[in-house]
Structures are given as C-alpha cells and as structure tokens.
Amino acid sequence: MIFGLLDKKPVIDSSSSEWIFQAYEWALQNFDATLFYQDTVLVCPTNDFFPGKVNSVHSMAESIFEQVKTYAGIGHWPTLVQDQSACQLTESQQIQIQGALRGPQGIKNESVDDSQKLVIPYNPQQINNPEGMIATYAHILSHHMGRMSKTQPPGGIEYWPHATELLAVFLGFGLMFANSAYNFRGGCGSCYNPYAQRSAYLSETEATYALALFSVLKEIPNSEVTPHLKAHLRGTYRKSVKEISNRQQELRQLKQPPETQALASSASV
Questions:
Q1: pTM over 0.85
Q2: How far apart are CA 244 and CA 250, in angstroms?
Q3: Segments making up each domain of the chain, as ranges
C-alpha cells in the first residue's frame, strides 16, 4: 500500500505544472502557434542534427549556433558570434528583423554591418559540453525573442529567466535543457570544470516535464525521445507524459487557434 501511494505522487508540484502550461500558452500566443505545430522539430543531440567538420573552437561555436538559429526558425536574424572574453554586451542591443519574426517568411539581409548585428557570446570552455552550449545559445536567443513579446510571461519579470528557458524548450531544445540542467560536481578536482556548465533556472525535473508537454502537443512518441535523455530522467519523462495526457481540457486549450486562446484567457480574468 505504501508503494502504491508513492507512485501517485505527481512529478512536480501543482503550482509548477500550472505555470508550465500557462507559459506554453504565452509562447503559443506570441511566437506563432501555427509554426510550432507544423514546423517545429524536437532537436536531438546527434550528428544528424549538428553535422559538419570544423578546425577550431570558434568555427565549432559558429557552426553549432547557426544550426540552433535554423531550428529556432530565426536563420534570418543578423547575428555575430564572439568569444565572451572579447565582446562587450549591452542590454539595449537592437536589431532590424525583416519579414516575420520566425519562420520561412523571414527575410535575410546579407548587407547588415557587423555593428548592427546581435552579438552572441560563447564560452570556449563549453566546447566539450555541446548540449550545454546548445542550451545556452537557445536561451540567449529566447531571451531576445521574449523581449519582442506583446505580453509578459506568467509570473512577470520575476520569472523571466524561467520563461525564456521554457520558450527555448518550446522552440524544440527541451532535450538539451533536461540533460544539462544538472551537472555532477563531486569527484576529484580535475573531473569538474565549472566554466563548461550552464546556469539553469528550470530544474531538471521541470525541464523534463516541459519537454514532455512539447511531445504531447506535437504527438511525438516516447520511443523518439527517451533514447536521447539521460538514463535517470527517462522514468520521469514517461510519468510526465502520462500525467500531461490526462489533462485533456488544458491540452485542448493549448491546441486552440491563438485568437481563441486569447479570448478564453480574457474571459477567465
């Protein structure tokens, strides 16, 4: 009986799961629900998704970033990848994006001067942690994308870093966020390089739950996801999928057209 009761414990607490559902609704309303359902893919940490041969740390950092941009649907954004030790960032960076914010309707402008490009820093120490680097890039892009939102994410500015991580999961990078949310810090001093890790705001369980919601909405079978997850997260992922699949009313809400979602949200205020 005791074990049966333990099995019924939810993956995450109710307030966290509600926030994740609300954050998905915010993302769908502001960042093209049609593109999400029709074109967004689950990006996997494999050579099939990140092919190519490089001959330097910088060229690898650039190659990974360009592919992250493509999967995020923002290949047309004018950007410049720089070693973080060599670049100066300002929060007020502004770029001109032609056509749609995301997707095939975006227009790439090859004549943009470097001074007018969005500077994207990378940490050379992270080059041996590609999943962490991919997640970091996706989070940086989601931060800038989130600033273009017409509405604040649930929880407001206090939850900004969490919302932008969630937005990166929404863009297809959930596997990297789940796998790189926690890194073991024990062992001998030479085993752990803190500069190769990324700062995570969603816990690995929350990131796994957010990934599961992505898969349920996109109807991606477990067999296409779990082989790419860390072994200890696979059970959490399957349980999350099962829990989420039982929330049919909330799922129907997320699958409604954006304008219908907005009306429903207004009516519930």
A1: yes
A2: 9
A3: 12-268
